[in-house]
Amino acid sequence: VKIGIAGASGRLGRLVITRLLELAPAEDIVAITRTPEKLEDFADLGVDVRQGDYDDADSLVTAFKHVERLLLIPSNAMAAVRHEQYDNAIMAAKRMRVQHLVTYTLEGTTPGNPFALNPAHVYAEMALFQSKIPWTIIRTGPYADELVDWLPTIIELGSIPYPTASGKAPYVSRDDIARATAKLLLSDKIAGTIPEFVGPEMLSTEDLCRIAAEVTGEDIIYVPAEPADYVQIRMEEGMSEQDAVVLATMYIAIAEHRMEKAHLGGIEKLTGVAPKSVRELLAEKIASE
Ligand SMILES: NC(=O)c1ccc[n+]([C@@H]2O[C@H](COP(=O)([O-])OP(=O)(O)OC[C@H]3O[C@@H](n4cnc5c(N)ncnc54)[C@H](OP(=O)(O)O)[C@@H]3O)[C@@H](O)[C@H]2O)c1
Question: 73 in ligand 1 pocket by Cβ < 6 Å?
């Protein structure tokens, strides 16, 4: 089967291609990106790298030629823009007779969730359900990479200022999501399912602080933070206000316990290998420095 990955040049996209290359011939992989030069390393390995922009429906029609299964990795655009991007991608997929659509949303996707990108996720799920193309919706946990990459600041602050109160979430690494996605894209039994690619345990931010303290040997203690505290700290580090506010709303959703209904174990069931815990990911980060 020819497998297309759209939105392929981001961090998750590159990991999905890397993991697919372990399981399938490069000629069967079509990587679709606004910026093909970013994927030259994969083109050198034989991956078919094509230009395709979610904002340009015609470019997608050309890019989806002969693609049988298509993974739509959402862009990093704001919610309202993503609606149109999904419309463009689904229209192009229909025209090119793509046989199966797969995309990502987040645990807790449901109307009324306060996460700023929730409307885009609700829209994406509805759009795939109604597309008349066989679909699979992957709901992921929040990326653990976000926490791991933030470790220097966490040590400096002596806390993790996520405004989650006592809410818990199944943090998961991008690489485990990619590994399971590669396996899923090559499976024949996925149509009409909503797999959950989440980490191995449900953790509060107090748990995260305890684990970070044990792994680093530093004093890291949870002091309940407000969304505004989180946004300010992120902006002081150079993040845009918009991105900081979007992330803060994800932690508000966690504070509302909206991820706690997640079913753990989906990645292990599909791949035979459990996803890494936050403890393992933090230990790996420290060992690599
Ligand atoms: N679960 C979570 O905690 C979590 C956290 C963050 C993000 N996410 C979701 O996961 C997705 C992937 O995450 P990531 O970390 O891999 O993001 P990323 O590294 O920021 O990559 C996003 C990619 O979107 C591409 N893109 C932007 N606009 C596009 C367009 N109009 N057409 C085609 N491609 C476009 C960009 O490609 P170019 O190279 O062309 O600029 C960029 O490479 C995100 O978009 C987001 O929806 C989830």
Answer: yes
Query: pTM above the 0.85 mark?
Result: yes
What is the 223 CA–ligand 1 centroid distance (Å)?
31
Q: Say if residue 184 is exposed, middle or buried (CB neighbours under 10 Å; 0-12, 13-18, 19+).
A: buried
Say if ligand 1 is within 6 A of residue 54 CB.
Answer: yes
106 CB under 6 A from ligand 1? yes
Question: For residue 106, how far is its CA from the centre of ligand 1 (angstroms)?
Answer: 14
What is the chain's pLDDT, residue by residue, as a tens digit (289 residues)? 999 999 999 999 999 999 999 999 999 999 999 999 999 999 999 999 999 999 999 999 999 999 999 999 999 999 999 999 999 999 999 999 999 999 999 999 999 999 999 999 999 999 999 999 999 999 999 999 999 999 999 999 999 999 999 999 999 999 999 999 999 999 998 999 999 999 999 999 999 999 999 999 999 999 999 999 999 999 999 999 999 999 999 999 999 999 999 999 999 999 999 999 999 999 999 999 8
Give the residue whose CA is nearest to atom 5 of ligand 1.
Answer: 143
Quick one: which of 103, 87, 105, 104 has its CA closest to 95?
87
Residue given tokens 């340009």 in the structure block: 56
